[in-house]
Amino acid sequence: MGHGTAPAGIDLDALPPIDDGTSARTESPTPGPVGLDSTSGDAKAGNMADQIVSYARRQQGSRVGKGQCFDLADTALRGAKAKSAADYGKISPNADYTWGTPVTLAGLQPGDVIQFRNYTYESTVVTKTDKATTTDEVAQDRPHHTAIVESVGEDGAVTVLEQNAPDGSPVTRTVLYFKDSTTTSGKRTTTIKVKGKFWFFRPEAS
Length: 206
Known about the structure:
This protein has helices at residues 48-58, 69-79; strands at 101-103, 113-128, 133-152, 157-162, 172-177, 181-185, 188-202. The protein is mostly beta strands. Strand 3 (133-152) and strand 4 (157-162) form a beta hairpin.
């Protein structure tokens, strides 16, 4: 972590590093125009969170900056006149970046930023019928990563906008989970298991 102070993470489990993670930029890229979802939106329209989410949405399928996860969040926040991680501490390739005011999962909102450290979630869906029982498993990991919150669902489900997950990928929309849960609907039972650390931040005006 840099010289800034970050809150204690949500340490559900201690995992070894999965890979080398994502390196940080040593300087911020020049922000592009930030407005609402229309490509010709006024940068002053909407509030800061709207501008952050709208910018990230418009980048889907493209790469921002050098294509690192840090670049998307850094460019979106600076373009919305919010402080970025460099305003809170030293930026280094392996730092747990601070992106604003710490918030909880219960208070998470669109436009917030999530910082990950050795995060994984595993989803197991068991379907029982009169003839058979089938099991489907899905897993996601984010060893060292940053993402922007697009929307918040139920049972710890959060839709994020991110890039470089997996390595080299452009900006995409992904649903990730941030708490353990078990739900049953009809003959289907879904179990979510979450491990690792993650921090939630509310961007602050610069």
